[in-house]
């Protein structure tokens, strides 16, 4: 995971893993057998957007708290595995926790986040970009060399 934080809403707190990379954001808690009470995963989106949560690969029921501007936007409770949950309003983040743990959380409640472990640098994203870029540079260098060779022969 990219890091860890503590999320507080009202009197409730959850120790969460942060999902920030593409893989983490799309995989989430899929195929995880269970999580301890008082824990979860906070999905930090790259930009405010509409969200669809796919629970088809989930192995346990969850509550989902959608967050916008450090306030609860919506709460989806007791979502069983195998469903799609769509949030109709763009959000900044969303929190997946064990089913029943969002009881008492209401729209408009204030959300605070305290990061306890900063995310490390994800080199997998660089390699997926750098290798094709290096290959493109190599091809351009070869094409440039061939063009100089052909151009040199035409000038003579």
From TrEMBL:
Family matches, as InterPro entries: DUF192 (IPR003795), Saro_0823-like_sf (IPR038695)
UniProt key word Membrane: yes
- Keyword terms of this UniProt record: Membrane, Transmembrane, Transmembrane helix
Report the transmembrane regions from the record.
Answer: 129-147
* Name of protein: Uncharacterized protein
Q: Which PANTHER family match?
A: UPF0127 PROTEIN MJ1496
